[in-house]
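Chain A, query sequence.
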Amino acid sequence: MDNKYDAVIVGGGVLGTFHAYHALELGLKVCLVEKDAYPKGATTQNFGQVVPSGMNTKWQQFGRESLRIYKGIQSRFDISIRQNGTVYLASNEEEEQLLVELGAINSSNGYESQLLTRHQCLEKYSGLRTDYVTAGLFFPEEVTVEPRTMIHRLQKYLVTQRGLDIKFDFPVISCESTGENVTVQSTKDEEVFGSKVVICNGSDFKNLYPAMFSSSELEVSKLQMMQTKPQGNFKLRGSILTGWSIRRYEAFHECPSYSQIKENEPKGSPQKKWGVHILFKQAADGSVILGDSHQYADAGKIEDLGYDLDMDIDNFMIEEAKKVIDLPTYQIQKRWYGIYSQCKNSDLFQKTIDDNIHIVTGIGGKGMTGSAGFSKKHIATIFNKQKINL
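Chain A, predicted structure.
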């Protein structure tokens, strides 16, 4: 049967695509089904950075494995990976203390990082304002991706060189265990059959299992981002994360000083209200991506976030970005928002139905960094292949 597979993966974003990748690595026959004509959700609307440095100890291991996977694929097929490293820039003594503590944690974890003096930061990063930076922590192994490009190139690689079957325009309306197989049916009455099915798409999960979805602890986050016009000959290397990122990212929660420093923060600021932390990343065309903000709602009430861009948030981010780096131009050529789902009190949502249907979603902001590494372990578990090197 041409439509019978060892694994059917539902959802063509980064999480689903890397589940397909690792199933292929095990020598399985794999089909990836995607509801749209091409991937266009959170995977293509994110910032485009792979930063295990920002994750807690558990997820940093997945992120570091992701780096190895990304670089391995890039060595064989261009999926837009660029290794320019990530820097966190401290703007005061408190943030500098957190950098020192995170550097020590990563040293004990065997993850390379380098503390930079104020002078070294100013030498390394063009346009960085002398009245902003006090120190930096640099992670040389980390990479950036072009999110609107990467997923398409990755899927092309898997189809042309690894034997993946992809079916686009395949909105799933039914996923039922039928004896030895699971039948996956689309709105067009197309069917594929899988020994195992992995549902990695939040929309499909919501439609297939509405009661389970409504009782889950999933929430959604809306992130606003911008892209400047090309910056001419100006070069900005890697991912630039600032003091507000230091105060937000999970990795810093493990630092001894974190709780007290957070307690000292002022309440009620626009930065707190909109969940803003200022990031910079130069795109392949020389433009600079700026962001981002975070607004939250229960997954079943996504409409509460609205469908428009809030210009007050964008204007606030631009003014704060100008305090960090003097770009040749802050003229904006593109604005957008991304929506991703996450769990309120756990790493992600996982559920197994009838032994052979596995739901995994709600990976949140960890998707681009953590999906490749997490999917390797998850696929190995599903197919009882624990002997593979994790």
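Residues 86-140+218-343 form a domain with the D-Amino Acid Oxidase; Chain A, domain 2 fold (CATH 3.30.9.10). Residues 128 and 351 are 46 Å apart (CA to CA).
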